[in-house]
Design brief:
By secondary structure, the protein is α/β, with parallel strands linked by helices. It folds into two domains: 4-168, VC0802-like; 190-229 and 259-384, 3-Layer(aba) Sandwich (Rossmann fold), CATH 3.40.50.150. It contains eleven helices and 14 strands. The strands form two sheets. A seven-stranded mixed beta sheet has the order 2-3-1-4-7-6-5. A hairpin with a 2-residue loop joins strand 2 (37-42) and strand 3 (45-51). The N and C termini lie far apart (49 Å). Bound molecules: S-adenosylmethionine. S-adenosylmethionine (SAM) binds next to helix 7 and strand 9. The site of S-adenosylmethionine (SAM) has 21 residues, from helix 7 and strand 9.
Length: 385
């Protein structure tokens, strides 16, 4: 567990720079004496070299990745017998407990691209590795006892015939926090919310701000801001089914060592929402947290609030029947104007679908971050007051 291994941390496409901000910040908090070795970064993720144990722990510590893969091997192959052969020699007995894992394959400019054949070669290779190095009974028993658990998938990626084989350490996507969440209309994924919050705040000074979400829905932004430094011990992760981990004795101690802390970036987390039913859900989701949710209309003039305010908002996109005609660029401009009048925020972060061609004056713009939200091309604009 103390040996070095490569982990590839996957982020929503185009947002790995923001993910890296969280990784660096939290690494220093949890591993203050250890250097973080970043091998490379691309649009979709960050490759790091850390101990196996540290890599596993990032599932508990980080909130913005999609998932975290452990790299198992990298080799060139242009035919299936070679792929089979390579797989059959990998030390799978440390990672698999006798299951036939699902395979996720992707190939660019490579001879081996047929996903069905790739899957077959990998599965046959794994069977062969089990034959050569039989899985111990205790793992087979663990497998039998934990059949409902998320067992890890194997990731195959080929680029110019260079093949990388990885195993998932996360399981169900990392944005699943383990708490029960009641979702309102079009909630934003928790991992995206935490990335956008990072974009909004990372370069601000350290004074505590009031975070306001004027169209708060189920409360995702406020919960993610509130829990930004919470350790996730409320769910299982795929790595917990690796023989490596099953055999690791100080498991509980290891996980208990990581301590959650309050997010001191915000002195208050305030949400407003127009729909009474959605407010009820948001109130349930935020129970026990320093988050206040009230009924409010973003366009009303009544709830103004002075202070060091930051506004973050994910307005409706008009995808539901009957709404589309009212939602155009003027609707988003009205929201911005209204929150500026009510809260005089230091910054406003707002998500607007790309199709509306919102084009703020350069003097107003801090950042423009394109990404996909539920398959739709949108842009997160950060605006000055
Ligand atoms: C896309 S959802 C927000 C999703 C939220 N970020 C979440 O993760 O749950 C937009 C929300 O704005 C609310 N809304 C629509 N018009 C509003 C208005 N005029 N004032 C306040 N809230 C409004 C809707 O009821 C909906 O819950």
């Amino acid at each position: 567990m103390e040996t070095l291994a490569q982990f590839y941390i996957i982020y929503p496409l185009g947002l790995s720079d923001l993910g890296l901000l969280e990784l660096k910040e939290k690494w220093v908090i949890h591993y203050p004496d250890k250097k973080l070795e970043i091998i490379s970064k691309n649009e979709g993720g960050v490759l790091i070299n850390v101990t196996t144990l540290q890599g596993f722990s990032l599932n508990h510590i980080l909130r913005s990745p999609t998932r975290i893969l452990l790299r198992v091997a990298e080799f060139k192959a242009r035919d299936f017998p070679k792929l089979f052969n390579k797989i059959s020699k990998l030390p799978m007995k440390h990672l698999l407990i006798g299951q036939k894992p699902e395979i996720e394959a992707s190939a660019t400019n490579s001879k081996l691209f047929d996903s069905r054949k790739i899957e077959k070669a990998i599965k046959d290779g794994i069977e062969e590795s089990y034959r050569k190095q039989p899985v111990k009974k205790k793992y087979l028993d663990h497998f039998e006892a934990n059949k409902t658990n998320d067992l890890p998938k194997i990731y195959y990626r080929a680029v110019d015939d260079m093949i990388t084989i990885s195993i998932d350490t996360t399981g169900e996507l990392l944005h699943k926090r383990g708490d029960k969440i009641f979702t309102g209309l079009a909630p934003i994924r928790e991992s995206l919310a935490s990335l956008l919050l990072a974009a909004l705040t990372y370069d601000l000074d350290k004074k505590p701000y009031i975070l306001i979400d004027p169209m708060t829905g189920s409360g995702t932004f406020l919960i993610e801001a509130h829990d930004a430094y919470k350790i996730n011990n409320d769910r299982n992760f795929a790595y917990q089914n690796f023989p490596l981990w099953i055999d690791y004795l100080p498991k509980k101690q290891f996980i208990d060592n990581f301590k959650s802390s309050e997010n001191d970036k915000f002195s208050k987390h305030l949400g407003f929402e127009i729909n009474e039913d959605v407010i009820k859900l948001a109130v349930k989701n935020t129970e026990g947290k320093n988050i206040q949710i009230k009924k409010g209309d973003v366009f009303s003039k009544s709830e103004s609030l002075a202070g060091d305010n930051l506004v973050i908002v994910n307005p409706p996109y008009g995808l539901r029947v009957g709404e589309k005609s009212n939602i155009n660029v003027e609707y988003y401009k009205k929201i911005i104007q209204s929150v500026r009048e009510k809260y005089s925020p230091v910054r406003v972060g707002i998500i607007i679908p790309e199709e509306h061609y919102f084009n703020p004056a350069p003097k107003d713009l801090v950042a423009r971050i394109p990404f996909k939200n539920g398959g739709l091309s949108v842009i997160f604009y950060i605006l000055k007051n």
